[in-house]
Amino acid sequence: MRTAERTVLVRDSALVWLASGVVGVSFGAIAVTGGLPVWVPVVMSLVVYAGSAQFSAIGVLLAGGGPVAAAATGLLLNTRTAAFSLAVADILGRGRLARFLGAHLVTDETVAFALAQPDPARRRAAFWISGVGLFAVWNLGVLAGALAGGALGDTGTYGLDAAFPAVLVALVLPTLRASPAIRRSALLGAGLALAVTPAVPAGVPVLVALAGLVLHGNRRTA
Amino acid sequence: MNATVAMILAMAVGTYAFRLVGPVLHGRVELPERLQELLSAGAIVLLVALLATGALTEGGGFAGWARPAGVLAGAVLAWRRAPFVVVVLGAAATTALLRAAGVT
Q1: Handedness of CA B68, B79, A133, A19 (dihedral sign)
Q2: Is A43 in contact with B8 (Cβ distance < 8 A)?
Q3: Hey, is the C-beta of A215 within 8 angstroms of any chain B C-beta?
Q4: Cβ of A106 under 8 Å from any chain B Cβ?
Q5: How far apart are CA A69 and CA A57, in angstroms?
Q6: How far B68 CA lies from chain A's nearest CA (Å)?
Q7: Angle at Cα A204 formed by Cα A203 and Cα A209, nearest 5°?
Q8: What is the pTM of this model?
Q9: How far is A153 from chain B (nearest CA, A)?
């Protein structure tokens, strides 16, 4: 891979890192201002490393839902990482270490970023560049937020909550353009997910979306 | 053991187990081509569902207009093949400006 291609991957990843870093800061701050000790968000970010699950678990905990409900909510949200890990299994690399380390780096953003690349070499580079950088920045952000407490204010002011869905739009759009079968499945899936959202626990809607694959059909190129 | 430590451990072990499904099965089980095709389609379906629910909902209800408007702005930019940076910053800026103008 040429240096220029790597530079593009780093540049595009850096934006996701920046946004995630700020969200990490807000996660650390929310946990600590809610009354949890600094080590809770910090250790959780290192060993669980899944933004939405961490927010949900801490949310349940701070709302008085208890640790069992908190863990169950977080785990339910993370069931999707099993599907993502299958999708990137051949991207990680052959070695045992690469596979065991790479597994921990499987997140929505990194998987989307890797799958958006046009060839296997770039997919692998994208996975590791995005994955390692995101892990570092997310954890540093959480640590900074936990130490700073509520000094940052409301991150909603910066519109960051719109940045993440937009990142995913940018990453899936080329695939959606190229494949009508995936487009049909994804539209049905998203519709189903939205329809059930008010009625089911967090984490379930995106799993329900997989039912959209019934429209994928059998044709190879469709 | 402290209940919070147990919660974090349970989440960590469970999440890592989910993440190992792919790497552990890979190379051991020969997946049929059709299933591999469905898996990569499934990843995209999951990502689209995540972005749709992330753009429109918050805590099981409607997220308000500012966020989906920002995501829509980003989607239009992406559709016009704007650079990644422009898409992401455009979405965040649109939402931030709407909120500054009093739209929630």
Answers
A1: negative
A2: yes
A3: no
A4: yes
A5: 8
A6: 7
A7: 110
A8: 0.83
A9: 14
Is residue B1 less than 8 Å (CB to CB) from chain A?
no
Query: Are residues A49 and B15, on separate chains, in Cβ contact within 8 Å?
Result: yes
CB contact under 8 A, A83 and B43: yes
Q: pLDDT tens string for chain A (222 positions)?
A: 788 889 999 999 998 899 889 889 888 988 898 889 999 999 999 999 998 899 888 888 887 778 888 898 889 889 999 999 999 999 998 888 999 999 999 999 999 999 999 999 999 999 999 999 999 999 999 999 999 886 766 767 888 888 889 988 998 999 999 999 999 999 999 999 999 999 988 888 888 999 999 999 865 544
Pure H helices in B1-104: 3-25, 33-56, 66-79, 84-100
The DSSP element (H or E) to which A206 belongs, if any, is: helix A204-208
In this structure, the number of other CB atoms found within 10 A of the CB of residue A183 comes to 18
Which residues, numbered 14 to 33 in chain A, qualify as contacts with chain B under a Cβ-Cβ cut-off of 8 Å? Answer: 15-16, 19
Q: What are phi and psi of A119, to 5 degrees?
A: -140, 165
Residue B39 sits at the vertex; the CA angle it makes with B16 and A6, to the nearest 5 degrees, is: 75
ipTM score here? 0.88
